[in-house]
Amino acid sequence: MREAESGRFHVFDTQRLETIPRGALGTWVLLQPRAPGLQGARVLSIPSPPFGSVTLYDRDGPLSTTSPTTLDPDLKAHGRIAFALPQAWSSTAPILLKFEHTDNLNTPVRFVLATRAEFRRVDTLWIVMASASLAVMLAMGLVALCFSSMLGDTTFAWYAAYVCSYAGLQAVQTGFVFQPLHLAFIQPIALSIGSALTAIAMISAVLFMVRFCDLRQHAPWLRRLLLALAGMMTMLATLQVFDLPITREIMHALFNPLLALCSGLMVLAGSVALLRGSRPALFFLFGWLPLLVLTALTSIQVSGGLAHVEWLNEASLAAGAIEALVLAIGLADRSLTMRRDHHIARELADKDPLTGVLNRRGWIDAAQKHMQDTQQTHAILFMDLDHFKTLNDELGHGAGDQALIAMAGNLATELRPQDLLGRFGGEEFVALLSGTDSNNALLVAQRLCRRLHRLEIPLDHRGNLLTVSIGLATRRPNDTLSSLVERADAAMYTAKSRGRNRVVDERQVETARRPVLRPSRAAPDMTDTDPPRRSEQSV
Q: What parts of the sequence cross the membrane (predicted)?
């Protein structure tokens, strides 16, 4: 203290962040308070302190020693070291501290002198903010793990690894693991844990970003470079496990430059992917850029700049939570887009490309789901265009396609939205009528038969018109979809044998059962009856 009063010590300003020089036997720090107006009990606190212990001295010697892991029941300090100054201590008297040697003692620190009431208010706000930020990050990580397990998408797993490791890194760096989590046992290895979590966070961020922004398609050369850098960081993290002097030197020489290079390349890759049409890249840049800017500002502060910026540590916590939310929204948007694309692909696979109605597979899948409702009545209409081969042979396949399109469009218009219409193959169509009994189904079938005939679609050059034969079957107890369609198919064949252009209900005839899920048949035999001409309009 005498040497300090004589000007031989550098006096630290309590209003600025300053870098404490490293000393093998510890470092003395002299503070000159500039708050003469403070009255009553005062507290000297050190936010984001080094992991070692700090001792407060007066002219007679040491008063108290504390560290981030010290549990003081009277003066709880979260994420900081705090000393309760004696009441008799003058508000302008110099304060002498001794920092014990630690490997991270050269990081900038800040000293805050405040009343006990103000200290408790600020400490409460900090613990609320830090707890909320870490809780958001961990919650997003756990949700992502659940989605990764359910969807089998490793993109969610890499996101969870990144968010959780970053949350752990912030908890260690801010002292949250010591107070309020009381994990004091990790103090000796806190620096190693911090370095390991930094490496894990960056590696998982790279792997997440590569998949999330689809760099394989949008920026393949940047993807390869980022994966190479992630591999180098993995080797550095592995070397750190051995904790040898040479490995520590390699880590100190390469780790931070690799972090900076990797972060910059990720921004570049995200920008390139965005310009080339990657929608998720927009979410990535919105979430990643604020955190990257804060990291750069923190690096500048560690180097001695931005001494008046006191909120970077707290901002990094909040930015981590915001980034976790933005990327989670991006993942949700990506999942919805993938689900929509899958739904569109499924619809295309289930739709007949010519007529736009369900194809055979799509109709069977949908009909089986409808048949699970055993409380409703179900009827099947099996429809086959009469003499369709003649139309193709005489008027061409283009005319045949137009006839099929007209047939499907009119059937869809005539049926209800809840009825299932499908093209079973070739010129065959099938419809499942839910909640319809036999009598009503027969009326619907007759209406469909008349509607197609009124379209007056030419069948050949002699004035014959296209007609349809329809077979009707109604569900019975213990019926399956296959057996129901089989009876409707047999009824349709009876309609053809009775002259075509008519409806036959299965109740009117005894039919033989035949397999239903068969390949499309050839055109029916046309020798039993001539097709109707325009004058033959009866059904």
A: 125-147, 159-178, 184-210, 222-242, 254-275, 282-303, 315-332
